Amino acid sequence: MAIDGMNHFTVLTSDLEKSKAFYIGVLGLTEGYRPPFAFPGAWLYSGDQAILHIIAGKPLPVEAQGVIDHMAFTASNLQVVVDTLNQHGIPFKLHRLVGEHTWQLFCHDPDGAKVELDFAASEPEPRAINTQLGS
Fold first, then answer.
1. How far is CA 48 from CA 3, 16, 53, 93, in A?
2. Where would I find the VOC domain in this sequence (predicted)?
């Protein structure tokens, strides 16, 4: 058996519309085909790949389950993303990866899932960073 790549992540949500607004309106994914499951949700795409599945109507766990810490996406247009997060009042933390100089931006979705966005080292340092997560 060999792994050929990552298929998708699945997150639970307490509010499907809020989650879609974040992942579509803020992060730029698009909603696409989803099989007719018996429970509400959405499949969000990057290009033609459904990379994020959202499940609604299922209670969120009281305590975190498993050991997954965060989901990471390759991204572009750092300044546009920073401006969009600031416009929506979404706190974030931004730094350069030691040695690689890749930009790493961390924020949380409406239900608290940690999201990492990785930008090329060649992207210029953004201006007007107004909201930041604590350490």
1. 20, 22, 14, 29
2. 5-120
Q: Which CATH number, 3.30.365.10, 3.10.180.10, 1.10.10.10, 3.40.50.970, labels domain 69-135? A: 3.10.180.10
pTM of the model: 0.84
Which phi and psi angles does 36 have, rounded to 5°? -80, 70
Instruction: List, for residues 30-71, the tens digit of each pLDDT value.
Output: 999 999 999 999 999 999 999 999 999 888 777 766 767 799
Asked whether residue 4 carries a pLDDT value surpassing 90, the answer given is no
* Tally of CB atoms within 10 A around 105: 22
